[in-house]
Write a structure and sequence with these properties.
The chain has 2 domains: 1-95, no CATH class; 97-272, Nucleotidyltransferase, domain 5 (2-Layer Sandwich). Helix content is 42%, strand content 17%. It is built from 10 helices and 9 strands. The strands form 3 sheets. The protein has a 5-stranded mixed β-sheet, with helices on both faces. Helix 4 (98-107) crosses helix 9. It starts with a helix and ends with a helix.
């Protein structure tokens, strides 16, 4: 399809998935197969933008097609964000996708099938990449707020205190831990399955589609939880690491996984 044909098809297809009239949405599409763009700009450049060239890919069933990511957002929300920045005297260059921010940081150079998970406060973003290309994207309805809320309720403390206690505690307790830390550790292990269950469902679906993750890369504030990587390695039987972006920081700054998406958004122009 030409870009014009694909734009019309995207508006038609989006109505199957989004329970909001198309005329109330900002709709975009992104071609995920960058073959022609690579030919124009050299083999190292991959441009995940609607203007990318047309490509064809053979699937296991010998059907020709191309991977397309459909994007839709309520126009009212987009205009609201635009208005906020306009009143602040700023010009909005772009409103970007969270998944693209994570891809820029951790996915562009991954050759093996890799799952990238940013554990946010209320939701978590799952991204599957292979050979540097986005293969799967899903927003998981679970985040670190489940953990802090549970600790706050069971210990009778504020959410801020619960957040601090959670950061200081470990998911698994060694022999040197005290009674308080043991209670927190046990509480975390009771609630963590709510997050891992959503992640497991998505990874199982990907396996059925012949996309088996070989590694799990974490980001987000909850990824700083002591012992989380070991816990997830036991659950999924995969290597699990907290992602470190290939970005040089000044000597006074250190990387905080809670700001992974913000850094990825800031790199949009540099990586386009």
């Amino acid at each position: 399809m030409s870009d014009k044909e694909l734009e019309a098809a995207a508006r038609f297809e989006i109505e199957k998935f989004v329970p909001i009239p198309a005329d109330q949405l900002i709709i975009r599409y992104v071609r995920l197969d960058p073959e022609e763009e690579k030919e124009r700009n050299g083999p190292k450049i991959k441009r995940f933008m609607p203007r990318s060239g047309e490509t064809k890919e053979n699937s296991d069933h010998h059907e020709e097609g191309q991977n397309i990511l459909l994007l839709a957002a309520p126009a009212a929300i987009i205009y609201q964000y635009h208005s906020i920045f306009s009143r602040a005297g700023m010009v909005v260059r772009a409103i970007d996708l969270k998944a693209f921010a994570l891809w820029r940081l951790f996915g562009r150079t991954e050759e093996d099938c890799t799952a990238i998970v940013d554990i946010g406060s209320k939701t978590s973003q799952l991204l599957l990449v292979k050979d540097g290309l986005i293969k799967f994207n899903r927003l998981l309805p679970a985040g670190g707020e489940i953990l802090t809320g549970y600790i706050s309720e069971n210990f009778g403390i504020s959410l801020q205190e619960a957040r601090q206690m959670m950061e200081e505690a470990a998911v698994t307790l060694d022999d040197q831990g005290d009674f308080k830390a043991s209670r927190i550790s046990n509480a975390l292990q009771e609630v963590l399955p709510e997050i891992t269950r959503e992640l497991e469902r998505s990874l199982d679906y990907c396996r059925q589609e012949n996309m088996t993750a070989k590694k799990l890369v974490l980001s987000g504030g909850t990824s700083k939880l002591t012992g989380l990587t070991d816990y997830l390695e036991d659950v999924f039987e995969l290597p699990v690491v907290v992602g470190i972006p290939p970005v040089e920081f000044s000597e006074s700054l250190t990387y905080d996984p809670a700001y992974a998406v913000a850094i990825g958004l800031a790199l949009r122009e540099a990586c386009s």
